[in-house]
Amino acid sequence: MALDGEHWFSEPFGDEGVAFSLEITDKLHEEQTPYQHIEVYQTKRWGRLLVIDGCVMLTSRDNFTYHEMMSHPALFTHPAPRNVLIIGGGDCGMLREVLKHPGVKRCTQVDIDAGVTRAAEAFFPELCSANDDPRAELRFEDGIQYIKDLPAGSVDVIIVDSTDPVGPAEGLFGEAFFRDVHRALADDGLIVQQSESPILHVDTILRDLHAAMRGAGFTRVVTLQFPVCSYPSGWWSATVAGKGADLTAFREADARAKPFATAYYNAAMHRAALAVPEFCRDLLTDQ
Ligand code: SAM
C-alpha cells in the first residue's frame, strides 16, 4: 500500500531500510525557528504528533514510556535528588515527571529552541502541567554552553533529553560535553542521556556514548532499555553514568511506595530495564 504524504506522516530511518508511519488527519502547526523545523499533526489513532526536522519527537499516545523511563530510574537511583537539570526537553514532558518527586527542590530546563516549548504549550498542554511549578525554571539557550558556566558539584541529576546527535544536539554526545557534566555534578551525581535504539545503534551511537562517558571520567555506566513505539525500531534506551556507586542498585522501597502516578514506570520495570540482552553484553559491563 503506497503511503501518500497527504494521509500519512512517515519517518524513514537513514539507511536502515525501515520507516515508521502514522495516519494523519490534519497538520496543526509548522514553523522554521532559527534552530529547527517544527511540525505538529493530528493523527487518526495516536493523538497529536510533534516532529522536529522530520523526526518523531513524541505522540500523545506513547510519550509516557519515554518520559517516565528517562526520569524515574535515575531519580530513584540517586540517594536524594534535589537540584535537577534537564538539557533539551522543550516539550516539557520530562519536567512534569521530575517535579512529581517531592524531594526535588529545583528543576532547570535548558532548551535551545523556545519554539518547541511554544508549540508544546499550544498543542500538548498536558505535558506542560508543571511549567508553573515554583520549583521550575525554563531557560532558552544552548545546553552545551550552559553546563560550562555551572559551579562545580552543583547538580544532583542531569537529564539530557535531546534530539538525535546531529545539528544543535551533536555536541551533547561528545566527551568534551561529558567532562563539563562530570565537573558540574556532585560526587553522587548522575547523568542520564537518551541513547537511541539498542537494535539499531549498539555498535555505533550507544558504543560511542559509553566510551565518551568513560573517557570523561565516569566510572559507572549502565543502559536501560524500554519500548518507545514511535521511535526508530520501537526499542529505545537511556544511559546513566555516575562517579562510583553501583547504578544497578536503586531505592526500590521508595520506588514501590512512590507517591505519584505513572503509566509505565514501577520498581519491577526499573529492574527489568537493567537486564542485558546477549548482543549487548560486551558493551554493558557494569550490569
Ligand atoms: N525525546 C526526543 C528524542 O529522543 O528525540 C527529544 C525531545 S525534545 C523535543 C529534544 C530537544 O532538544 C528539542 O526541543 C531541541 O530544541 C533540544 N536541543 C537540541 N540541541 C540542544 C542544545 N544544544 N541545547 C539545548 N537543547 C537542545
Could you explain the architecture of this structure?
The protein is α/β, with parallel strands linked by helices. The protein is built from 10 helices and 12 strands. It has helices at about 65-70, 70-75, 95-100, 115-125, 145-150, 175-185, 200, 205-215, 250-255, 265-275; strands spanning about 10, 20-30, 35-45, 50, 55-60, 85-90, 105-110, 135-140, 155-160, 185-195, 220-225, 235-240. The strands form 2 sheets. It has a 7-stranded mixed beta sheet. Strand 9, helix 6 and strand 10 form a beta-alpha-beta unit. Helix 6 packs across helix 8. The radius of gyration is 18 Å and the shape is globular. The mean pLDDT is about 95. S-adenosylmethionine binds near residues 89 and 172.
Quickly describe the structure:
The chain has 287 residues and is an alpha/beta fold. It folds into two domains: 2-59, Spermidine Synthase, Chain: A, domain 2 (Roll); 63-284, Vaccinia Virus protein VP39 (Rossmann fold), CATH 3.40.50.150.
